[in-house]
Amino acid sequence: MGTINQANGAERSTDRVLRILRIDASARHAASVSRGLADRLVDRLRTQHPGAELVVRDLSIGLPFVNETMIEGFYTPAADRSDEQRMALALSDELVAELAAADRVVIATPIYNFSVPAALKAWIDLVCRAGLTFKYTENGPLGLLADRKTYLIAASGGVPIGGPMDFLSGYLRQVLGFIGIRDVELIAADRLGAGGDARVSAAHDRIDGLFTDIASPADEAAPVAA
Ligand SMILES: Cc1cc2nc3c(=O)[nH]c(=O)nc-3n(C[C@H](O)[C@H](O)[C@H](O)COP(=O)(O)O)c2cc1C
After folding, report:
1. How far apart are CA 123 and CA 135, in angstroms?
2. DSSP letters of 45-78?
3. 3-state helix, strand, coil in the chain (%, to 5)
4. What is the pLDDT of residues 80-118, one digit of tens each?
5. 210 CB-near residues (< 8 Å, 6+ apart)
6. Radius of gyration of the chain (CA)
């Protein structure tokens, strides 16, 4: 049994099965490169941690945007919230709880118009919660979530990930760090518009390289770009 110290001083017990939270942001499904890579990564995690629990949050079904009732609820102490505010915050509370409970997070996302898909931005707006996932201190903002290994899978058609036109990976690192998550491993499958198959294969190989302690998946063929 072990414990993880959280930023708020509490301790989180690790005496239970590992929890994986997978977040998919691509509007595509079977043809999605980011989802294919997330399949691979989650498979490796589950091989490494037999019995791990998996929670999948598929953002392609859409999420509500932050509205006025939610914002009023954000800034009202929980005990004083109206029924309407409580109902408006129910999904946000659920998303925060499943993120807080996760030992490993896998975020699989394309670049849409130089940044995150709108559904992923909506998720961000629902999990960045003053008093729950961050707070302001005399020394500036403090993330309240415990750090945990987070895999960021990013696919793009033409924009090089990490280059000046990539407003996704740096932004996501900033947002995750803001709420306390700094251990972010970026797996890029970028510039898939030209010569994409080789880059997709390389991204699959990179995932396998992160799990060299488990049996070699050498006999599995890496899926190629659609
Ligand atoms: C609406 C839309 C906007 C996109 N915008 C960009 C972009 O700004 N830059 C880029 O490099 N690729 C862009 N792409 C290409 C996707 O990032 C690329 O096809 C990626 O593989 C999609 O991820 P997926 O395979 O997981 O669906 C866009 C694709 C779509 C559908």
Report:
1. 19
2. HHHHSTT-EEEEEEGGG--PPP-HHHHHHHTS-G
3. 35, 20, 40
4. 999 999 999 999 999 999 999 999 999 999 999 999 999
5. 41, 44, 151, 185
6. 18
What is the 8-class DSSP label of residue 160?
A: P
CA distance 170 to 192: 20
Per-residue buried b or exposed e for 203-216, using 16+ beta carbons within 10 Å of the residue's own CB: bbebbbeebeeeee
Please work out whether the CB of residue 26 comes within 6 Å of at least one atom of ligand 1.
yes
Protein residue whose Cα sits closest to atom 27 of ligand 1: 32
Domain coordinates in residue numbering, the chain: 20-209
Q: Which atom of ligand 1 is nearest to the CA of 196?
A: 21
32 lines ligand 1 (CB under 6 A): yes
> Which ligand 1 atom sits closest to the C-alpha of 33?
25
Instruction: Say which CATH superfamily domain 20-209 falls into.
Output: Flavodoxin domain (3.40.50.360)
116 touches ligand 1 (CB under 6 Å): no
Instruction: Report the C-alpha gap between 27 and 30 in whole angstroms.
Output: 10
Distance CA 118, CA 121 (A): 5
Please write the tens of the pLDDT for every residue from 50-91.
999 999 999 999 999 999 999 999 999 999 999 999 999 999
Our answer on whether the CB atom of 157 is closer than 6 Å to any ligand 1 atom is yes
8 Å CB contact between 109 and 25: yes
What pTM was estimated for this model as a whole?
Answer: 0.90
